[in-house]
Write a structure and sequence with these properties.
By secondary structure, the chain is α/β, with parallel strands linked by helices. Helix content is 38%, strand content 28%. It contains 10 helices and 10 strands. The strands form 2 sheets. The chain has a 6-stranded mixed sheet, sandwiched between helices. A 4-stranded antiparallel sheet has the order 2-1-4-5, covered by helices on one side. α7 links the parallel β7 and β8. α3 packs parallel to α6. It is globular. Bound molecules: adenosine-5'-triphosphate. Adenosine-5'-triphosphate binds next to α1. The site of adenosine-5'-triphosphate (ATP) has 11 residues, from α1.
Length: 239
């Protein structure tokens, strides 16, 4: 049975100036699953996430649990429960790890709830706990990625969007980050959208995948089937 979608894009288009970057994108993101968005450089993957977060001009409709969100501001979309971890990661480099996490929390939560959320994030990312007083700017790339994800989780999102979490990371730390993403999904049932150039890892750690080429959805289906597909293997998996 197909799970009900948490997020739906209906004939979404996006353009920068006169250039169409996304065309006629209609996709349903299943609830409680990890969904991979894969495609070559410049295919439009980042723009897809930016469209959902109202960070670029779009046409078409975007619905979160059946409610239109495409007319809302970036801030409001975030408050509705969509957390976006951009590819630059965007941690506040002058603040400590813990202060970065506290900034991520929704402001109207009481101190006790914030503390519980903080402890939960430290349980997912023990490295962040070890380094809670360290300045974010001095963390390694992998630790900064962990902090960016942890900060997004402090929002208690309904959808977590991750743009290239593997970017620039060595294989071991990359593996650790994918395992933690998997753990968060399984433990919380959180819906996660994973934009990745590391196609193999993205397919291994997701249940559903969408392939974008030149701003259009070329194919979609179970990630396991993508891993076995000859065209995908040849073009994106190097085998
Ligand atoms: P990559 O994997 O390399 O990050 P991507 O699939 O995420 O690629 P996008 O970043 O969405 O691709 O870019 C899609 C296209 O839109 C590219 O041709 C890019 O040059 C163009 N583009 C992206 N941002 C802008 C912008 N702010 N202004 C103009 N063109 C842009």
């Amino acid at each position: 049975m197909t799970p009900e979608p948490i997020l739906e894009l209906r004939t979404v288009g996006a353009r920068y100036g006169a250039v169409d970057v996304l065309r006629n994108v209609s996709i349903a993101i299943p609830k409680g699953a990890v969904t991979a968005i894969i495609g070559a450089n410049g295919a439009g993957k980042t723009t897809l996430l930016r469209s959902i977060s109202a960070m670029c001009a779009i046409s078409g409709e975007i619905l979160l649990e059946g409610q239109r969100i495409d007319q809302l501001s970036t801030n409001r979309i975030s408050r509705r429960g969509i957390a976006h971890v951009p590819d630059g990661r965007g941690t506040l480099s002058g603040l400590s790890v813990e202060d970065n996490l506290r900034v991520g929390a929704i402001s109207n939560r009481d101190a006790k709830t914030k503390l519980q959320d903080l402890e939960k994030i430290y349980a997912y990312f023990p490295r962040l706990k070890e380094r809670h007083t360290q300045q974010a700017g001095t963390l390694s790339g992998g630790e900064q990625q962990m902090l960016a994800i942890g900060r997004a989780l402090m929002q208690r999102p309904r959808v977590l969007m991750l743009d290239e979490p593997s970017f620039g990371l060595a294989p071991l730390i990359l593996q650790e980050i994918f395992r933690i993403i998997d753990n968060i999904n399984r433990t919380e049932g959180l819906s996660i959208i994973l934009v990745e150039q590391n196609v193999r890892k993205a397919l291994m750690y997701s249940t559903t995948a969408f392939l974008i080429e030149n701003g259009e959805i070329r194919s979609s289906g179970p990630s396991a089937a993508f891993l076995e597909n000859d065209d995908i293997k040849k073009s994106y998996l190097g085998s």
